[in-house]
Amino acid sequence: MRGIISKQRNPKLRGGINTPKGQGTTGTGIIVRDFLGSVKSAPLYDVWSHLRKVCHENGWHYPAYDHFTKYFSKLKRLGLVEFDHSEPLEHYEGHDPPGHPNLFQKRGSDKIMQRSFYKLNISKANSSDWSNPQEALYGSYKK
């Protein structure tokens, strides 16, 4: 009965991995653009958390946070997102973690670490670069 199983390709799958970028699905850049368009500004972690939530709801794999920071840097280089402001990161959910009273101070400094907020660049909200920022930066790669 092995030959009876059909090998229809799932349009959401790319390379055997269920990801947010595939035929007929919304790409990562579009999800980020729509989120930043719906809020005034947000820190990078909140943008990633929203992406993770959308991917989870659709059964897609989401990028690791460190990979997303690299992706987001491409959006910044293209001017699709802009720095808005920063706030001091003094407390973790209203308190310092036990045993780490100076966790949010830079080592060897009295300065408190800052949390950066980003916003959508309205003039580039409809740019085609949102669908593939890597290709917009480096050009297409064809084997």
Account of the protein in words:
This protein is an alpha+beta fold. It has a domain at 23-95 and 102-126: Arc Repressor Mutant, subunit A. It contains four helices and five strands. The strands form two sheets. The protein has a three-stranded antiparallel sheet with strand order 3-5-4. The chain has a two-stranded antiparallel ribbon with strand order 1-2. Helix 1 (28-38) crosses helix 2. It is globular, with a radius of gyration of 19 Å. Residues 1-17 have low confidence and may be disordered.
Briefly note the CATH topology name of one domain: Arc Repressor Mutant, subunit A
How would you state the average pLDDT, rounded? 76
Strand order of the largest sheet: 3-5-4
Q: Tally the beta strands.
A: 5
Biggest sheet overview = 3 strands, antiparallel
C-alpha end-to-end distance = 37 Å
Uncertain parts: 1-17
| CATH class value of one domain | Mainly Alpha
* Range of strand content: 5-15%
Question: Rg, please?
Answer: 19 Å
Task: Tally the helices.
Answer: 4
- Structural class, by secondary structure, is alpha+beta
